[in-house]
Specification:
It is built from no helices and 14 strands. 0% of the residues lie in helices and 45% in strands. By secondary structure, it is an all-beta fold. The radius of gyration is 17 Å and the shape is globular. The chain has strands at 4-8, 11-21, 27-32, 41-45, 50-55, 63-66, 71-75, 82-83, 93-101, 118-121, 130-137, 149-153, 157-163, 170-174. The protein has one domain. It has a seven-stranded mixed sheet with strand order 8-7-6-3-2-1-10, with no helix packed on it. The chain has a five-stranded mixed sheet with strand order 9-11-13-12-14, with no helix packed on it. Strands 4-5 form a two-stranded antiparallel sheet.
């Protein structure tokens, strides 16, 4: 499974790591690959959309785990655990997170880009805030919007990443056969 990287002005930045443990316990992990910066966790609040302090500084990278049981855990975040469809029985689409950055160059640089990683190019002239939405969909779900990246696990689900800035589009499809927990 490739990591998702962002490239702008000749620099490549870390963005998301995705790990699906289909041969272990059926869990999906999506990790926002940015080192914690030591400041408070912020959330949007109030009618005027101002940021409010929602929690202490993160010590680890923010990650989401979606388990076969349907339990969705938001690690290193103030969001509470939720319960949804089993990952093998998804129906429709599920928004997992919205990540907003002041600019792409606020992400950590990736010096060595493995060939297995997916690199999404952003226009060099784009500056300012950029917002991403990460969604999980059933394998046969018809996506209405065009994502900037679509990672499909045949027979399981797809992860769609949307951006509120223009970029090239990347698609990765896993051709590994579907295995249930405990099978070899």
């Amino acid at each position: 499974m490739p990591n998702l990287l962002l490239r702008q002005n000749g620099k490549t930045f870390k963005f998301l790591k995705v790990e699906f443990r289909d041969r272990v316990d059926g869990s999906l992990y999506v990790i926002f690959d940015r080192a914690p910066n030591g400041s408070e966790t912020l959330n949007w609040g109030g009618r005027n959309g101002t940021a409010i302090v929602a929690g202490p500084a993160r010590k680890k990278r923010f990650r989401i785990s979606y388990h076969e049981s349907g339990t969705v855990v938001f690690h290193e975040h103030v969001a509470e655990t939720i319960y949804d469809d089993q990952i093998s029985e998804l129906s429709g689409a599920r928004d997992l997170a919205i990540i907003s950055l002041p600019s792409i160059d606020r992400l950590d640089l990736e010096e060595n880009v493995p060939s297995s990683d997916a690199v999404i190019d952003f226009p060099n002239d784009h500056s300012g805030r950029i917002t991403f939405k990460i969604a999980l969909t059933a394998p046969d779900f018809q996506i209405a919007e065009s994502p900037i990246a679509l990672i499909s696990y045949t027979g399981w689900f797809a992860i769609a990443v949307y951006s509120f800035a223009k970029s090239t589009w990347y698609s990765y499809r896993s051709e590994r056969p579907r295995h249930h927990r405990g099978s070899q």
